[in-house]
Amino acid sequence: MPITETVIRAKTTAGEVDFTVHAVFEAAGDLVFVDEVEQALLSGEIIEDDTKRSRCLVCSRVASAGLLHVVIDYSDWLVDADSGLVVVTVYRPDPNRWIDGRVRRP
After folding, report:
1. Spatial distance between the Cα atoms of 47 and 57, rounded to a whole number of angstroms
2. How many Cα neighbours within 13 Å face the side chain of 80?
3. Tell me, what's the pLDDT at 64?
4. How many domains does the chain have?
5. In terms of residue numbers, what domain contains 33?
6. What's the rounded Cα separation, in Å, for the pair 54 and 49?
7. Is 39 a domain residue?
8. If you ran DSSP here, which 8-state letter would residue 18 be given?
9. What are the φ/ψ torsions at residue 53 (nearest 5 degrees)?
10. pTM flag (> 0.90)
11. In a domain, 106, yes or no
């Protein structure tokens, strides 16, 4: 069962989102704060869903941070709907690799 934006928003609102150490370091490296990542999850759009790895890529424009990509692991949620989601990484999409931040360049 794939994840939905509705589930991501509900889990974020309920505080059921954890961050890997890698995600925290990547966000800090791009000067992105946790509250901005949460804003991105509340307003973002799933632009890729890797169901084999139970991960999705959320894209959002946050007023204070600009365009952000947030990779979410939802494997625990698939096993138990009461489980939280995990932010694996956060980054600002490179315009050399993304078209409008939403489509990977060939």
Report:
1. 6
2. 5
3. 83
4. 1
5. 5-94
6. 8
7. yes
8. E
9. -100, 0
10. yes
11. no
